[in-house]
Amino acid sequence: MADKIRETISAASKPAPGEAGRTGDWRSQTPFIDHDKCSQKDTCLLCWLYCPDGVVGRDFPLEIDLEYCKGCGICAEECPREAITMAEGKTRDDVA
Amino acid sequence: MATKAARELPSQELILPGTRSCAACGLMLTYRHALKALDEGKTIVAVPASCMTVLHGVYPITPVKVICINNPFAATGASVSGIVAGLKAVGKEGYTVVAFAGDGGTYDIGIQSLSGALERGTNFIYVCYDNEGYMNTGTQRSSASPAGAITTTTPVLAKLQHKKDMIGIVEAHRIPYIATASPAFPLDLYDKFVTAKSISGSRYMEVHAPCPPGWGFPNKDLIKMGKLAVDSGIHVLYEIRDGKFSLTSRSLRLAEKGRKKSVADYVVGQTRFRKISDEQVRRLQEFCDERWEELVKRHNKDNG
Predict the structure, then answer these.
(1) What is the CATH number of the domain that holds B251?
(2) Which of B243, B165, B188 is nearest to B9 (CA)?
(3) Best interface-test mutation with B: which of A10, A13, A27, A82 has the largest number of B CBs within 10 A?
(4) pTM for this structure?
């Protein structure tokens, strides 16, 4: 076996989004942003700051990535202007 | 300089969406802001068996864009010592080595290797995210669980002992930087990671990470629970730099204005405290008050 070529075998993961699948499927409540109620000022951005998964955008009007939003409702709870509301259902179509 | 507004934080996200962590995970929010303070290409994270391993995903995909090494539960301190020595041996400079372990991997299982690394003065940041139990395996009791909490290994009487004073143990190693933080105060947390990164030597940080499924409160209340823990003195925000103790952020304001909330307000919102007796609440209050007095006294002494 001395002539067998020995190679270092390494198992390293590569970064990619959606490691656990489309985590938006976990959601039972969907967030909605009322852009008229939102201050649209970057002095606030509390929803962006407190989102554990970082799916709230930072550019106005704010957008939430519903493909990955787990529907925890922190953004709706922490919004000082109550511009975000949580509605039952997984997608916007379910609610509408 | 202290960061005052959310817009001052870097917009770059080093964690890609679609992770395996629970909705409203306190660790996830901590990790997101901690990585903002660290560089993408020059950070190496060491992770023992914990919720963090779950967050880092299953081969061949990971949602995190920094280099990560998984190590055995008890070996975090030893693992980072090896990484630091390896970087030195091959002449790579400018790397920040960070260990992220849970309270089980710090208070109980990893304490021996952590103490070894701190004693050797290994150049790394050790972060203990304290969710007060073995949450990944199903909410077992750890020595960080508070007195009065129901866990799956203390289901009848609730935990009888108070939380271990881990910071006291770490401080006895006389390392240059120790800090506590909370994801409910992300700006303070970010600042502390920036400070920790700028210092060389062993640095220890303890982050109080609320866990909605383990503690039994609604997902949406994550930030409220984190703030309540600080307001009631269950968790105190401070940093110790070369022995100089300073309260920071909300805890500093509480010390100045003296509007501390009672422990009963904190306990009532969590189902893990459903069996806590009035006597236990009273003792928990005394325990927190005593520690708060000590810390405020120490802050006034060091900041004259």
Answers:
(1) 3.40.50.970
(2) B188
(3) A13
(4) 0.93
